[in-house]
Amino acid sequence: MALQEELEQQGIWLFRYRGVLPIIILAVGLLLFLQTEMHPETFYLKNSPFELYFEMFCLGVSLLGLLIRIFVIGYVPKNTSGRTVKTQVADSLNTTGIYSLVRHPLYLGNYFMWLGLAMMSENFWFAVAFTLLYWVYYERIMFSEEKFLRSKFGENYLKWAEKVPAFVPDFKNFVKPNLTFSWKKVVRKEINGLFLLILIFFFYDYLGILTENQTDLNPFLLYSLIILIFVIVVIKIIKKKTDLLKQENR
Questions:
Q1: CB of 162 closer than 8 Å to CB of 150
Q2: Left (φ > 0), alpha (ψ -120 to 50) or beta: where does 168 sit?
Q3: What is the domain range of residue 166?
Q4: CB atoms closer than 10 angstroms to residue 127
Q5: Has residue 198 been placed in a domain?
Q6: Considering the domain boundaries, does residue 124 fall inside one?
Q7: Other C-beta atoms within 10 Å of 78: how many?
Q8: 95-152, pLDDT tens digit by residue?
Q9: For residue 149, is it within any domain?
Q10: Alpha helices per DSSP H over the chain
Q11: Which pLDDT score, from 0 to 100, does residue 82 have?
Q12: Of 40, 75, 119, 205, which has the fewest CB atoms closer than 10 Å, so is most exposed?
């Protein structure tokens, strides 16, 4: 098999099992986090006034990734910026909004979301290793997607890809989105992601308290988790009983 076809097949296979990567990150990260909790001398911010600030900084990095995803999801039409497990979906080529800055904004958002979690391990080299693994992993997925887009949209895709970088945004090329922002689509697509993100950070915080025999939970994480549980229940009721969150072509 030629290298191009091999990379494409690897990308398709990796996309199909893309849910495995976050589990690996969490599992290894939690083990390293517990090791640091038991050996606080290995992390210079441990048991210092700046430990809480570091935790909130990690959360901020992850929320930045979520905000990038929200910006993408909120402006794109239906059947773009995604695909099923077995087939790719692209009724049109996204070239405006954040897609005028970077070709794979959802993967950029995912990177920051997971980077914040990797940093919570309080191990610098794990965060570096995650970055390298993420690049190798998603480079192949991006390769397979771009081959599909090139075959479907031809010259239009080539002109767009020529001036828009794959992963590092170029802000000088920004083009205003064609569509208005859809909060309905964002709520449908991203509220569960926000909940899981806060839940994982809360779990890290809870583990730290258990290992240090403390009792004070991070109030921001605790109250955010309670509010999000209530919001998700309300959203599920709205989705089941009404069409309020439905929107044509979005």
A1: no
A2: beta
A3: 3-180
A4: 19
A5: no
A6: yes
A7: 14
A8: 899 999 999 999 999 999 999 999 999 899 999 999 999 998 888 888 888 888 888 8
A9: yes
A10: 3-16, 20-38, 51-75, 105-119, 124-163, 183-211, 219-241
A11: 53
A12: 40
Residues in contact with 152: Cβ distance below 8 Å, sequence separation at least 6, in sequence order: 90
CA gap 143, 9 in Å, rounded: 10
Q: Is residue 38 within 8 Å of 47, Cβ to Cβ?
A: no
User: Integer distance in angstroms from the first to the last C-alpha of the chain?
Assistant: 39
Structure tokens at 152: 């479907």
| CA–CA gap between residue 147 and residue 96 (Å, rounded) | 20
Six-digit token string for 161? 């890809």
CA torsion, ordered 210, 216, 220, 221, to nearest 10 deg: 20
Amino acid identity, residue 143?
F
Note whether residue 131 is domain-resident.
Answer: yes
CATH number, residue 12:
1.20.120
